[in-house]
């Protein structure tokens, strides 16, 4: 609605300029705000105060001229001047009532499909092979997944790109160690503990010269496409990704094996890219290495910064891979837009890779490459989140703890649900809480991981929203089978406020998609739930004395709220329950 009033005012300014009331060179920053007190209308603007001086009029006088020049709108019931020259808008509650009714009946809940639909690649999760997912991987994984779901809901073609770290010199030692394990106890090969596996491989590499020799040989063979090494490598990748898949499934993250586009995919493209950069005069030799100098990046000493794309020993780097990767996403995948959900500490790395890719002509100007950066996950002490002994927390263990805590919480609530229903609640609340804690913060900053906050049933948490949803379901159960949602009438201020919020769902979805910031959806859903609770207290539904019409109208508001909550949480990858 703000948008609509904004448009009316823009038109009005144009009219006033045409009429010579306002000089043609003023371009006021039109502002429309929610009023604090609904008795003074729904929206207000200070435009008359901004324009009074250039127009040489007093603000109240000008306010009246603005009102007179305002185009008619069926959505506005009344416009008034207030105080020194504010203009207050009273929205037409009948128009609003019709809109909410339509929203409740619309499967898309008022969310507009994107035109034109784009092909959007989303780079997210990206764990490393032969390592277990650590706690910090949750950020990229859940934020990226929420953005992916939102973009898909808008009708874009979304390509999930799980940029798994599946290439590098460490694979020589990993293959050698896998071989050793297979030789020693061929049948019970269990790589349950990948951390231990990696540690042991490294230990052998550092301490056993013959092993190290073999490992170095395997790196060369793997890169040369040797079949045995390739098979062993594939085993490591598959084992790791099978473990990660269990985490994705637990977290209700929409990634699967087909989305893996690891670093190895780009490896065969690197020699060609490097020689192309050389041919274009961008890459030059420097002490045996190949370097691209970028004027855009200056080191501390003010010198142009060089980005190494091939080492002296012929090896390629993480940056070389990301140059190839950007090229591939544009040329082969046909991306119009690429969103990278990566730790903010990798910003410079990405900027260098993209600057080179653009200069080389691999990524045209109209394709947008966006670093959806995020900060770190901190413990309550404000330091990076670690185990008590200072080690990295495994993501799987974090999820176990979340379920345990949710189970305890459930037990303390003396629920009368059946055991299997309780288990479903525990799972949905645990995963919801942990994801939402991450999703609800502006991703650009670090955030403090705090169990007590995220599992609270009060405040901006998943359990609060999930509970709001089940509460609406129970209203419907109590309303009885023959109670039907019906025509909406908006009389009480709480009803109007709720209806207006419901109409903003489209804005919230569009904002998440535009910025890759799911916290905007969280804030929206939290505000919506708050307004619902106020409405529910002020406007009885299942009480005696409520007329059938009023009950039907209020049930429509309940219905629309439940649907928006459910859809909004689904876009965040969070489940709702009928009871809890
Ligand atoms: N595997 C990397 C890591 O764990 C993240 C990869 C991000 N994606 C990319 N295109 N560089 O840090």
Explain the overall architecture:
With 580 residues, this protein is an alpha/beta fold. The chain has four domains: 90 residues, Gyrase A, domain 2 (2-Layer Sandwich); 90 residues, no CATH class; 105 residues, no CATH class; 177 residues, Orthogonal Bundle (Isoleucyl-tRNA Synthetase, Domain 1). The chain is built from 20 helices and 13 strands. A hairpin with an 8-residue loop joins strand 1 and strand 2. The protein is globular and about 85 Å long. It starts with a helix and ends in a 9-residue tail after the last helix. One of its GO terms (molecular function) is arginine-tRNA ligase activity.
Comma- or semicolon-separated keywords:
alpha/beta, 4 domains, binds arginine, Gyrase A, domain 2, four-stranded antiparallel β-sheet, 20 helices
Explain briefly what this protein structure is.
With about 575 residues, the protein is an alpha/beta fold.
Q: What is the strand and helix layout of this fold?
A:
Blueprint: H1 2-18, E1 32-34, E2 43-45, H2 47-55, H3 59-69, E3 76-82, E4 86-91, H4 93-105, E5 119-123, H5 137-153, E6 157-161, H6 170-184, H7 194-207, H8 209-223, H9 227-250, H10 270-279, E7 283-286, E8 289-298, E9 304-310, H11 318-331, E10 337-340, H12 347-359, E11 368-371, E12 377-378, H13 395-412, H14 419-439, E13 447-448, H15 451-454, H16 462-479, H17 493-502, H18 505-515, H19 519-538, H20 548-571
Parallel strand pairs: 5-6, 5-10, 10-11, 12-13
Antiparallel strand pairs: 1-2, 2-4, 3-4, 7-8, 8-9
Family: Belongs to the class-I aminoacyl-tRNA synthetase family.
Catalytic activity: tRNA(Arg) + L-arginine + ATP = L-arginyl-tRNA(Arg) + AMP + diphosphate
Domain DALR anticodon binding: 465-580
């Amino acid at each position: 609605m703000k948008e609509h009033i904004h448009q009316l005012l823009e038109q009005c300014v144009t009219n006033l300029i045409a009429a010579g009331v306002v000089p043609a060179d003023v371009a006021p920053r039109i502002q429309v705000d929610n009023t604090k007190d609904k008795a003074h209308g729904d929206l207000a603007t200070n435009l008359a105060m901004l324009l009074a001086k250039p127009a040489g009029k007093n603000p109240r006088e000008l306010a009246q001229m603005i009102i007179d020049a305002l185009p008619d709108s069926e959505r506005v019931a009344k416009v008034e001047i207030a105080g020194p020259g504010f203009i207050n808008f009273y929205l037409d509650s009948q128009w609003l009532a019709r809109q909410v009714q339509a929203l409740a009946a619309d499967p898309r809940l008022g969310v507009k499909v994107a035109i034109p639909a784009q092909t959007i690649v989303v780079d997210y999760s990206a764990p490393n092979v032969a390592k277990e997912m650590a706690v910090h991987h949750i950020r990229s994984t859940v934020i990226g997944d929420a953005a992916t779901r939102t973009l898909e809901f808008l009708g874009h073609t979304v390509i999930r790109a799980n940029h798994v770290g599946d290439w590098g010199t460490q694979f020589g030692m990993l293959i050698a160690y896998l071989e050793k394990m297979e030789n020693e106890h061929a049948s019970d090969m269990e790589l349950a503990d990948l951390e231990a596996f990696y540690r042991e491989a490294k230990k052998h590499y550092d301490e056993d010269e013959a092993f190290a020799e073999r490992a170095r040989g395997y790196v060369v063979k793997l890169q040369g496409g040797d079949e045995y090494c390739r098979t062993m490598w594939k085993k490591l990748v598959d084992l790791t990704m099978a473990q990660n898949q269990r985490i994705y499934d637990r977290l209700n993250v929409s990634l699967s094996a087909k989305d893996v586009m690891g670093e190895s995919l780009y490896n065969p493209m690197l020699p060609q890219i490097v020689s192309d950069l050389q041919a274009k005069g961008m890459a030059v030799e420097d002490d045996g290495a190949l370097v691209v100098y970028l004027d855009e990046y200056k080191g501390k000493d003010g010198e142009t910064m060089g980005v190494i794309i091939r080492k002296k020993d012929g090896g390629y780097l993480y940056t070389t891979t990301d140059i190839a990767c950007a090229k591939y996403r544009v040329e082969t995948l046909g991306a119009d837009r690429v969103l990278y959900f990566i730790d903010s500490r990798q910003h410079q790395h990405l900027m260098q890779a993209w600057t080179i890719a653009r200069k080389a002509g691999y990524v045209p100007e109209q394709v947008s490459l966006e670093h959806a950066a995020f900060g770190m996950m901190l413990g309550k002490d404000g330091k990076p989140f670690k185990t008590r002994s200072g080690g990295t927390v495994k993501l799987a263990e974090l999820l176990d703890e979340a379920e345990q805590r949710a189970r305890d919480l459930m037990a303390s609530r003396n629920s009368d649900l059946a055991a299997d229903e309780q288990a479903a609640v525990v799972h949905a609340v645990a995963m919801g809480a942990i994801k939402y804690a991450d999703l609800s913060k502006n991703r650009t900053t670090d955030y403090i991981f705090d169990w007590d906050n995220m599992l609270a049933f009060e405040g901006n948490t998943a359990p609060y929203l999930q509970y709001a949803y089940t509460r609406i379901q129970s209203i419907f159960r109590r309303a009885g089978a023959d109670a039907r949602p019906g025509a909406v009438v908006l009389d009480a201020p709480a009803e109007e406020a709720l209806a207006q919020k419901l109409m903003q769902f489209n804005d919230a979805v569009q904002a998440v998609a535009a910025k890759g910031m799911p916290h905007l959806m969280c804030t929206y859903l939290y505000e919506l739930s708050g307004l619902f609770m106020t409405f529910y207290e002020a406007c009885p539904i299942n009480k005696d004395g409520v007329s059938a019409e009023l009950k039907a109208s209020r049930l429509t508001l309940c219905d629309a709220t439940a649907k928006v909550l459910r859809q909004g949480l689904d876009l965040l990858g969070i489940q709702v329950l009928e009871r809890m």
